[in-house]
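User: My advisor asked me to double-check a structure prediction for DUF2911 domain-containing protein before group meeting. I don't want to rely on an old file, so could you generate it fresh from this sequence?
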Amino acid sequence: MKKLIVVFVLTISVLSCKNQEQKKEEHNHQETQTQQEDVPKKKPLSPHTSTMAMIGDAHIHIDYSSPGVRGRIIFGGLVGFDNVWQAGAHMATWIETNKDLIINGEVLPKGKYGFFTIPSKEDWTIMINKNWNQHGKDDYDANDDVIRFKVTPSISDKITEHLEYKVNKISETEGSISLAWEKVTISFPFKINQ
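Assistant: Sure, here is a fresh prediction for DUF2911 domain-containing protein from the sequence you gave:
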């Protein structure tokens, strides 16, 4: 009988200890979850964004990642002069149009294209390239350029903190595309090919 009582008491003690350990684990697990939920999500340094506009019946869409200046020298620093740049961060910037456009006297057939530049101190080279889906400029090939031309940048004292593209409507058949970042803005006109 004594043996039975001892076994019974031991069994209750073991079960009681296990129950306390389980409650402790559940409490710790709840604390961990609460701590994780309280941590605010970090904003991306180069958020993915896009801009678009209707010019007449043409829909022009630009998709890009928008890095910030964050106190850095951008052109001639982070983005070296006379080097191909994907005109954004991460994936190459792309432009899509549902109508043929005339840019710099050349026809850009409707479709989706990579948008690249070569910044320099004087003029920038703009390249609209067949290969729109690439990481950075890793797969950039000048042989895939559909249109290539030069623009003169305008320099401002005002800083544009995050890279920003705009598609501007001039009329029902004309518009312009601009890129602004740091103290630099470039812009070029286009027409809808009627």
